[in-house]
Amino acid sequence: MELRMLVPREIPLMEERIEHIPRISRAKGVAIDPAFKFGNKPLIIPAGTKAKILLDQTHLTFGYPVFNISQGMGSKIKVIYSEALYAEDGSKGNRNDIEGKEIQGYSDIILPDGGSERKIIPTWLRTYRFIQLEIETKSEPLKINDLYCIYTTYPLEQNGAFESDDPKLSQIWDVGWRTARLCAGETYMDCPYWEQLQYIGDTRIQSLISLYVSGDDRLMRNAIKLADHSRIPGGLTLSRGPSYINQIVPAFSLYWIAMVHDYYMHRKDDEFIKSCLPGIQAVLGWFERRMDDTGMLGGLEWFNFSDWTDGFLVGSPGVVDDGNSALISLNFAYALDRASELYSYFDYDIVAGKYKKMAMDIKASVRDLCWADSSDLMVDTPEKKAFSQHTNIFSILTDCVPEEQQQELMTKILNNPELIQTTIYYKFYLFEALQKTGMADKYLSMLQTWENMLGDGLTTFAEGNYKDRSDCHAWSASPLYHFLSSVAGILPETPGFNTVGIEPKFGHLSEIKVKVVHPHGIIRMNLTKNGKGIIGDIELPEGLKGNLYWGSDKIQLSQGKNDIRL
User: Do 538 and 402 belong together in one domain?
Assistant: First the structure.
């Protein structure tokens, strides 16, 4: 007999609530009163009937469907769940338009036994906006007494907020928050309909959203720990975990290190952070052993995913297997810099110094071998055959390109359509580079991807511009974080969020009103742009101080309410 030890639960129980489906969009083979709603009275399907009934939740949801049925001996109910309806060419189009479209998706089969008040619940969660009931009754009518969903997600509360004079941004906020909520359960998930897996690349973005909007860090800690526990003997983490299928994306192990650093900047939790150091060392050791005589990373095993852009080979920069990818080498330097800071914080100065020097050497090699003087851009390989936004973004994020050249490079990244373009996932790093270069004023003009999804009737943000992939994907909720970190400009200035730096970038806005969750309470900011200045107030929770930056001005902020007149 195998014995297993119980351990204390580190995250809260899931939130649960009842959701009824508000709309029957169409019915074939049976007449249904247009005003019918489940929960008010039973729906009766006569004997000897074949019917198809399309139900519309009106927004994407996630949970356990509950069917309460009576009679219907010998009947068959096929229940199909889908995020959207599909046209004949496989496209989804506007999610609110159902004409000429049919449902596709996974399904349950219910075989009634003729009993009374039978309650049927699937053994796992279902995701849907649309449900189609395909019903065939025999000699006995079927009575559907009720049909509803036990909505189930991690209990994230919306304690943060973003308001402005642009109503479109409020729509993006609301849809982004639903996206983030549906992608969080017992673990973070990339998407609720498809894989339902905690991919590190997605999870880093999700964690920052949780910290800023909810303030709940427990799911982030859990994700960091599970990734650490997933490491294989060579040192890398799995790309996702827990999972019974081992998939390894080497760069995701580097993003795990960045995620630990994010936690270090936002929370004072030395014991937990220190517990991650052996795993960090193991990950970095795996990459260190794959350096070659160019001073860059050589060939790498496994699935070298970076972004699902058309310019990469199945998501991977085409050269990674052979080696000398500037992007993955700079990903390594990015992680080394963050690891160096962590080790220095705990006074492991020798290891910190080693990592700092390694990062500097890698950046020097990439700069020497991959900088194209003819275009003033970083090339993806020393052979100088491909240019991507991705590599140039990380040239900025790592300071591989000197700081005084970064704004010019950022302008080229934004304006050169011949570069391999980032998809919605990697735009997170694009926007991080935009902020680092002091150009975050441009951010609000770069949200067309999200505005297009609103125009297509999505109630959550999709994985990307892919015909047959998820309508709800965690990485696409990144505007929630950037509205607060880039537009409002609120970031930790010292580790543990001990002090705050605030540098708002209004873009086209005149008014910004935000709340950001801090370990000590809520940071409140209410500012109006007044010509070239700003007026309003910033309120910091007890025990927190910081600085406000506006142009060349730097204003010290103290706990409590600070009146701003600049």
Answer: no
